[in-house]
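It is worth pausing here to work through a concrete case rather than discussing structure prediction in the abstract. The textbook approach is simple: state the sequence, then state the predicted structure, then interpret. We follow exactly that order.
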Amino acid sequence: MNTKLTSMLQAMSPENDPWDPIRSLQRHGKHILTSVELTVTNLCNMRCEHCAVGDSLTMKEGPRIPVATILQRLDQVEHLETISITGGEPSYHEQSVRDYIVPVLKYARERGIHTQLNSNLTMPIARYEMMAPYLDVMHISFNYTSAQDFHRVGFVRAGRQVSDKAAGKLYETMVENTIALSRGGMFISAESMINYLTLDKLADIHRLIVEMGCQRHEVHPMYPSSFAANLPRLSLDQYSYAIHRLLDSRDRDLWMLFGTLPYYACNTDEAGQRLLQRLRMEPNVTVRNDPDGRNRLNVNLFTGDVYVTDFSDVPSLGNIHTDKFQEVFERWEAHPLHASVNCYCPAVSCCGPNLLVADSYYKGVDFTTRAALI
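Step two, the predicted structure:
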C-alpha cells in the first residue's frame, strides 16, 4: 500500500499550519472566512467521554444534502484554505466515504485547499485508503495508555455494556490502522486532551503516539462542552503542571501542537508567563490560535444549519439553503459575542481567547483592552 500524497500543496510543518487563523489575520489585516467544517454524519460506534459533539450523536439519520449543493456553496468562499470533515465517525459507512467524502476531498485537491478528516480509525482500513490520495491530515483522538483506558474513555457514555473483548479489538484495530497508514505516508495528527484522567499520563500517551508513527501530537485542555460538560474542571496550575511534564519527556523530533491554551501574554501571573516563554523557545512546538469564532464555520449536512463551531452554544446563524457562507460569517462578525473576543496582539501573534476559554476562566475580562506584558 502506498498512501503518499502527490499534492502540489505546501507540506504541513511547524512553519505551515493552514488551520491557524493567525495566518489570514496577518495577511488580510482582519479575520476572514478561510475554513469550513462539514459535519457529514451523526453516527458513531463510540461514545467518548471527551466528545465535543456527543449530545448530537444518533442511532440513525436521514439523507444528506446533495454533495453538488455543498460544492456549489464552497465555490462561493473566495479565500477558502481548509476543509475539515467531522462527525460522528465519518467513515462509519463505506458508501458515505466513496460517494460523499471522496468527492469533497477531490474537489479540495483540485482547488488547492488543505483537508482534514476527524476519525477514530477503528473502521476497516480500506475506507481510509480510499481517502488517502486526497487527504492532508487524518486527525485522531488518542487519550490512552492501554486497551483498558480506551474502554473506560471510549464507551463511558454508550448507554449499554461494551465487553472488554469488543473494546480491546477496536483498540487493536485503531493502533494497527494508525501504524499502517503512517507507514504508507499519511499525515496522522493524534490529539490528546488534558483532563482529570490524562493529567499524569501524557508522557506515556506521547510515547505511544511516537511509536505509532504519527507526524504530530496535538494537546488541548478539555473544556466543559457536551459529554464533558459535567466532568471535573482543571485549574490553570494543573494544566501548566501537565504541559511542563510533557515537555520534559517528549520526543523533540516530533511536531507538538498546543491548541486552545488558557494562557495569554497579557496576563499578570508569572507561572503562565513562564509557560508561554518556554513554549516559544521549544523546538518543533507550536501554539495554535483556535479557529472557533475566528475564521471557520461549521455546516450540518443534514439540516443545512451553519454554526460558528461544531460545539459552541451559539445557535445557528443561517442555513445554506438560503444563505451563502460569507453572509453567515458577516452575521457572526456583527454578533455581540464576536466583539467580546475579537482582539489581536501583534507583539506575540495572539488573537485572543476561544469562547469556551473565556467563559470557563475569564468571565468579565475584556481582552480587547489588554496588551502583552513582554
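Step three, interpretation. The first strand starts at residue 35 and ends at 39. The two ends are 50 Å apart (CA to CA).
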